[in-house]
Structure formats: C-alpha cells, structure tokens
Amino acid sequence: MNASAPPALTLSPDNWDAFLARLYERGERLDLRTPGEPYPPEEDVDAYVLSAHAEALRSAEVDGDVWGTLEDIEETAGDEEEAWAKIVAFYLDRGCVLVRVTGTEEPEEWLLEEGLARRLGLLSSAAG
C-alpha cells in the first residue's frame, strides 16, 4: 500500500445516507449541494448513481461485479474475500480512498479516487 494513501474512512449507515443526500449529479459530474439552492429530483444521488463514479465497490444495494473488477486488474483469487482484498490493495496503492459503511448486514465498501473523495467532502482539503 502507498504510504501516502489516505486511510479508510468509516461511516455509519445514517452518515452514508446523509453523505449521499448532500450530493447532486449534473451531466456526468458529481458535486456537493449548496445549502438553500433548489435541485431538480433527477439530480439526486443514490448508491446506484454514485456507483458510476466509483473505481470499485462491494455493496448489497449495487452490484459491484467483484469478479469482473478482479479480472480487469489482471488478478485471480480463490474466493470473494480474497478478490476484494486484492482489489482494495490495487486501488489504495494508486491513491484511492476506501469508504466503509459499518452496521450493515452485508459488506458496504466503496473505492473512490482521492480527488473525487476530497471534492465531495469526504477528506479535508487541508490533509495530504
């Protein structure tokens, strides 16, 4: 893992939902809502919309295609846990951020490019 890579971020299910509610998508760009500004319903962001912007994910709500992602990075694994561990290592080594949602029945983990995570308010702009 890259020594300068940001650590994994851990969110509760309520914080995850609040994070998604603060986002909007216009065109192909995700961004933070400005408080008090109106946004059309079609700009709302849910996990499915966010998945189009993630590098990789493992989610009960959205199919992240762990095996397809593993093949894309030219790796193999014996089971899904090993596959996901290799995917996480691959993307963390490339400066991505792992976002974990705790307190869910099934794993909920998302890998986001660091610049996107920072722009969406997941990382302090003063960090790194």
The portion of residues forming beta strands comes to: 15-25%
Largest sheet: 4 strands, mixed
Order of neighbouring strands in the sheet with most strands: 1-5-6-4
Number of helices: 5
C-alpha-based Rg, rounded: 15 Å
Q: What does this 3D model show about the protein?
A:
The longest helix has 13 residues, at 80-92. The chain has a domain at 8-12 and 46-120. It has five helices and six strands, in the order βαββαβααββα. The chain has helices at residues 13-21, 47-51, 66-72, 80-92, 114-119; strands at 9-11, 23-26, 29-32, 56-58, 96-101, 109-113. A hairpin with a 2-residue loop joins β2 (23-26) and β3. It has 128 residues and is of the alpha+beta class. The mean pLDDT is 91. α3 crosses α4. A four-stranded mixed beta sheet has the order 1-5-6-4. Strands 2-3 form a two-stranded antiparallel ribbon. It starts with 8 loop residues before the first strand and ends in a 9-residue tail after the last helix.
